[in-house]
Amino acid sequence: MATGIKIYNDAGTVQIDESYANLVLVDKQTITISTPVTTAYDYTCSGDVVAVAVKVYPETFITKSAQFTGTGWVYRFLFFNNPDTTGTCTFTVYAFAKPPAATETVGLKVLNASGSLVFHSQFKPLRIIAVNSNAGGYTGPGGRDLAAMFLTMSLYSVVLFPSTVYESDTLRITGNVIQHSRIQIGTPAIAGINTTGLYAAVDVTNY
Protein backbone atom coordinates (compact mmCIF):
# COMPACT_ATOMS: atom_id res chain seq x y z
CA MET A 1 0.00 0.00 0.00
CA ALA A 2 1.37 3.42 -1.00
CA THR A 3 1.95 5.88 1.83
CA GLY A 4 2.58 9.62 1.94
CA ILE A 5 0.63 12.75 1.13
CA LYS A 6 -0.45 14.49 -2.08
CA ILE A 7 -2.58 17.64 -2.23
CA TYR A 8 -4.18 18.60 -5.56
CA ASN A 9 -5.78 21.82 -6.77
CA ASP A 10 -9.11 21.90 -8.62
CA ALA A 11 -7.28 21.39 -11.95
CA GLY A 12 -5.83 18.08 -10.76
CA THR A 13 -2.30 19.46 -10.40
CA VAL A 14 -0.19 18.28 -7.46
CA GLN A 15 0.58 21.29 -5.24
CA ILE A 16 2.11 19.56 -2.23
CA ASP A 17 3.92 16.20 -2.29
CA GLU A 18 6.11 14.72 0.44
CA SER A 19 8.77 13.79 -2.12
CA TYR A 20 8.88 17.22 -3.83
CA ALA A 21 10.47 20.24 -2.16
CA ASN A 22 8.82 23.54 -3.01
CA LEU A 23 11.14 26.43 -3.71
CA VAL A 24 10.11 29.32 -1.47
CA LEU A 25 10.81 33.03 -1.29
CA VAL A 26 14.02 33.54 0.73
CA ASP A 27 14.98 37.05 -0.35
CA LYS A 28 13.32 40.12 -1.86
CA GLN A 29 15.27 43.28 -2.63
CA THR A 30 14.32 46.50 -4.37
CA ILE A 31 17.42 48.10 -5.85
CA THR A 32 18.08 51.41 -7.63
CA ILE A 33 21.07 51.88 -9.94
CA SER A 34 22.15 54.49 -12.47
CA THR A 35 21.43 53.59 -16.08
CA PRO A 36 23.93 54.23 -18.82
CA VAL A 37 23.02 52.57 -22.12
CA THR A 38 23.69 49.09 -20.68
CA THR A 39 24.11 48.48 -16.95
CA ALA A 40 25.21 45.17 -15.41
CA TYR A 41 24.24 44.21 -11.87
CA ASP A 42 25.39 41.12 -9.95
CA TYR A 43 22.94 39.65 -7.44
CA THR A 44 24.19 37.04 -4.95
CA CYS A 45 22.13 34.59 -2.89
CA SER A 46 23.36 31.66 -0.80
CA GLY A 47 22.08 28.12 -1.31
CA ASP A 48 22.72 25.19 -3.62
CA VAL A 49 19.45 25.75 -5.51
CA VAL A 50 18.36 29.35 -6.19
CA ALA A 51 15.89 30.54 -8.83
CA VAL A 52 15.57 34.30 -9.39
CA ALA A 53 12.82 36.43 -10.92
CA VAL A 54 12.96 40.18 -11.63
CA LYS A 55 10.37 42.93 -11.93
CA VAL A 56 11.52 46.13 -13.69
CA TYR A 57 9.85 49.01 -15.53
CA PRO A 58 10.31 51.08 -17.70
CA GLU A 59 13.77 49.68 -18.46
CA THR A 60 14.14 46.15 -19.91
CA PHE A 61 16.45 43.38 -18.72
CA ILE A 62 17.98 40.01 -19.46
CA THR A 63 19.64 37.45 -17.22
CA LYS A 64 23.04 37.15 -18.85
CA SER A 65 24.57 34.47 -16.63
CA ALA A 66 24.21 32.42 -13.46
CA GLN A 67 27.28 31.04 -11.70
CA PHE A 68 27.54 28.73 -8.69
CA THR A 69 30.27 29.85 -6.27
CA GLY A 70 30.28 26.75 -4.06
CA THR A 71 28.05 28.31 -1.40
CA GLY A 72 25.55 30.24 -3.52
CA TRP A 73 24.70 31.73 -6.88
CA VAL A 74 25.67 34.96 -8.63
CA TYR A 75 23.15 36.16 -11.21
CA ARG A 76 24.28 38.84 -13.66
CA PHE A 77 21.47 41.01 -14.99
CA LEU A 78 21.78 43.53 -17.83
CA PHE A 79 19.43 46.53 -17.87
CA PHE A 80 18.75 48.61 -20.97
CA ASN A 81 17.61 52.18 -21.46
CA ASN A 82 14.64 53.20 -23.57
CA PRO A 83 12.83 56.50 -24.24
CA ASP A 84 10.94 56.16 -20.91
CA THR A 85 14.15 55.93 -18.84
CA THR A 86 14.63 58.70 -16.27
CA GLY A 87 18.34 58.21 -15.48
CA THR A 88 17.97 55.63 -12.73
CA CYS A 89 16.63 52.09 -12.83
CA THR A 90 14.65 50.59 -9.96
CA PHE A 91 14.01 46.85 -9.99
CA THR A 92 12.92 44.14 -7.57
CA VAL A 93 14.63 40.76 -7.25
CA TYR A 94 12.75 37.74 -5.90
CA ALA A 95 14.98 34.77 -4.91
CA PHE A 96 13.49 31.32 -4.36
CA ALA A 97 15.36 28.43 -2.71
CA LYS A 98 14.78 25.29 -0.64
CA PRO A 99 12.69 25.89 2.51
CA PRO A 100 14.79 27.10 5.47
CA ALA A 101 14.00 26.09 9.04
CA ALA A 102 10.51 27.27 9.95
CA THR A 103 10.04 29.63 12.90
CA GLU A 104 6.24 29.37 13.15
CA THR A 105 4.69 26.51 15.10
CA VAL A 106 1.22 26.68 13.53
CA GLY A 107 0.10 25.80 10.03
CA LEU A 108 0.81 22.88 7.71
CA LYS A 109 4.26 21.25 7.65
CA VAL A 110 5.26 18.36 5.37
CA LEU A 111 8.45 16.32 5.80
CA ASN A 112 9.87 13.74 3.41
CA ALA A 113 10.87 10.20 4.41
CA SER A 114 14.29 11.38 5.62
CA GLY A 115 12.77 14.07 7.83
CA SER A 116 13.70 17.04 5.63
CA LEU A 117 11.21 19.90 5.32
CA VAL A 118 9.58 20.04 1.87
CA PHE A 119 6.61 22.33 2.60
CA HIS A 120 5.57 24.77 5.30
CA SER A 121 2.62 27.15 5.11
CA GLN A 122 4.80 29.90 6.66
CA PHE A 123 6.66 30.30 3.36
CA LYS A 124 5.64 31.78 0.01
CA PRO A 125 6.22 29.24 -2.78
CA LEU A 126 7.53 29.84 -6.27
CA ARG A 127 4.38 30.17 -8.41
CA ILE A 128 5.07 29.81 -12.14
CA ILE A 129 1.89 30.51 -14.11
CA ALA A 130 3.26 30.33 -17.66
CA VAL A 131 6.40 29.53 -19.66
CA ASN A 132 6.80 31.46 -22.90
CA SER A 133 9.22 32.22 -25.69
CA ASN A 134 11.49 35.19 -24.96
CA ALA A 135 10.38 36.62 -28.30
CA GLY A 136 6.91 37.56 -27.04
CA GLY A 137 5.07 39.15 -24.15
CA TYR A 138 2.46 37.77 -21.78
CA THR A 139 -0.64 39.05 -19.99
CA GLY A 140 -1.56 37.27 -16.78
CA PRO A 141 -4.83 37.19 -14.86
CA GLY A 142 -6.19 40.58 -13.88
CA GLY A 143 -5.16 41.96 -10.51
CA ARG A 144 -1.97 39.88 -10.28
CA ASP A 145 1.63 41.13 -10.04
CA LEU A 146 4.16 39.30 -12.19
CA ALA A 147 7.93 39.00 -12.39
CA ALA A 148 9.99 37.37 -15.14
CA MET A 149 12.43 34.51 -14.70
CA PHE A 150 14.71 33.85 -17.68
CA LEU A 151 15.17 30.10 -18.19
CA THR A 152 17.39 30.36 -21.27
CA MET A 153 18.77 33.42 -23.05
CA SER A 154 18.02 34.38 -26.65
CA LEU A 155 20.95 35.19 -28.92
CA TYR A 156 20.84 36.29 -32.55
CA SER A 157 23.64 37.40 -34.87
CA VAL A 158 22.44 40.17 -37.17
CA VAL A 159 24.31 41.70 -40.11
CA LEU A 160 24.37 45.50 -39.87
CA PHE A 161 26.78 46.23 -42.70
CA PRO A 162 29.74 46.29 -42.38
CA SER A 163 29.48 44.62 -38.93
CA THR A 164 27.70 41.63 -37.43
CA VAL A 165 26.14 42.29 -34.01
CA TYR A 166 24.46 40.28 -31.29
CA GLU A 167 20.84 40.95 -30.37
CA SER A 168 18.74 39.44 -27.59
CA ASP A 169 15.15 39.43 -26.31
CA THR A 170 14.67 41.63 -23.25
CA LEU A 171 11.66 42.01 -20.94
CA ARG A 172 9.98 44.57 -18.71
CA ILE A 173 7.04 44.04 -16.39
CA THR A 174 4.23 46.27 -15.17
CA GLY A 175 1.41 44.79 -13.11
CA ASN A 176 0.20 41.61 -14.81
CA VAL A 177 1.81 42.41 -18.18
CA ILE A 178 5.23 41.26 -19.41
CA GLN A 179 6.45 43.26 -22.42
CA HIS A 180 9.11 42.20 -24.92
CA SER A 181 11.78 44.20 -26.76
CA ARG A 182 14.65 42.98 -28.97
CA ILE A 183 17.87 44.93 -28.35
CA GLN A 184 21.45 44.96 -29.60
CA ILE A 185 23.75 43.70 -26.84
CA GLY A 186 27.20 43.43 -28.39
CA THR A 187 29.59 43.56 -31.32
CA PRO A 188 31.41 41.98 -33.11
CA ALA A 189 29.45 38.76 -33.38
CA ILE A 190 29.79 35.32 -34.95
CA ALA A 191 27.48 34.96 -37.92
CA GLY A 192 24.79 32.29 -38.08
CA ILE A 193 23.54 32.26 -34.46
CA ASN A 194 19.76 32.18 -34.09
CA THR A 195 18.62 30.91 -30.67
CA THR A 196 15.36 31.89 -28.98
CA GLY A 197 15.15 31.22 -25.24
CA LEU A 198 12.35 30.82 -22.70
CA TYR A 199 11.14 32.69 -19.62
CA ALA A 200 8.71 31.90 -16.82
CA ALA A 201 6.00 34.29 -15.70
CA VAL A 202 6.09 34.21 -11.89
CA ASP A 203 3.16 35.34 -9.75
CA VAL A 204 4.56 37.53 -6.95
CA THR A 205 1.28 39.08 -5.80
CA ASN A 206 1.65 40.21 -2.16
CA TYR A 207 5.21 38.85 -2.00
What would your notes on this structure say?
By secondary structure, the chain is mainly beta. The protein has one domain. The protein is 0% helix and 57% strand. It is built from no helices and 18 strands. The protein has strands at 6-8, 14-17, 24-34, 38-46, 50-56, 60-68, 72-80, 88-97, 109-111, 117-120, 128-133, 138-139, 146-150, 155-160, 163-174, 177-186, 194-195, 198-203. A 5-stranded antiparallel sheet has the order 12-16-15-14-17, with no helix packed on it. The protein has a 3-stranded antiparallel sheet with strand order 3-8-5, with no helix packed on it. A hairpin with a 2-residue loop joins strand 14 (155-160) and strand 15 (163-174). The model has no long low-confidence stretch (mean pLDDT 87).
Q: So what's the overall shape?
A: elongated
Q: Which stretches are low in confidence, meaning pLDDT under 50 for 5 or more residues running?
A: none
Number of helices: 0
Let me know the largest β-sheet.
5 strands, antiparallel
Structural class: mainly beta
Radius of gyration, whole Å: 19 Å
How many DSSP E strands?
18
Order of strands in the sheet with the most strands? 12-16-15-14-17
Average of per-residue pLDDT values:
87
Structure in a nutshell:
With about 210 residues, the protein is mostly beta strands.
